[in-house]
Amino acid sequence: MGEGKSSDLQALRSWTFITNHAQVLLAVARDPAATVAQLAAAAEITERSTYRILSDLQRAGYVRRRRVGRHNAYEINPSMPLRDPTIENESVRDLLSLIAHADVEAHQQSQRVA
Question: Where residue 100 sits, what CATH number does that domain have?
């Protein structure tokens, strides 16, 4: 019986509802000054994939890169529409507000436990 649950969890981890592009965008939202290595770790993908995704997001206007000293910082354009036909009327701002709300709730719960 324990093996069935383990294989079920592995099957669930083999795919995700949120694409790698969205994962990188959310990682940027959480830390705009993060390095590509940090963004890759947050999104659980390779640095090479993260560079490619950041390039895609920049070309499409979702993210703007700025030089800050010797590092890059990223700025998200929250008014961009989500590129999904089922939620095309929603914006990046809407997605970010869901995540921000979840982050706030998680933080509040951890404060209650402490």
Answer: 1.10.10.10
